[in-house]
Amino acid sequence: MTEVTAIRYVTPLREGGSLPGIVEADDLGTYVMKLPTQGVDLGRCC
Asked: Which superkingdom (predicted)?
């Protein structure tokens, strides 16, 4: 499994209980990232 770093939080997906969102990564890919529902600091997650 390859490790990438999320560089930009693009948009939230308003479904599911864990706040999924679309992020862009340093490998120029776009991914869905699942964040915890409370106490999220996006600067630390992305």
From this structure: Bacteria
* pTM of this structure: 0.64
Q: Name the DSSP class of 27.
A: T
> In the structure encoding, which two tokens stand for residue 3, read together?
């490790």
Residue bearing the bigger pLDDT, 3 or 35: 3
If one counts the domains in the chain, the total is 1
Q: Which domain holds residue 27?
A: 6-37
Total count of residues recorded for the chain: 46
Residue at 11 is within a domain = yes
- Alpha-carbon span 2 to 40, nearest angstrom: 24
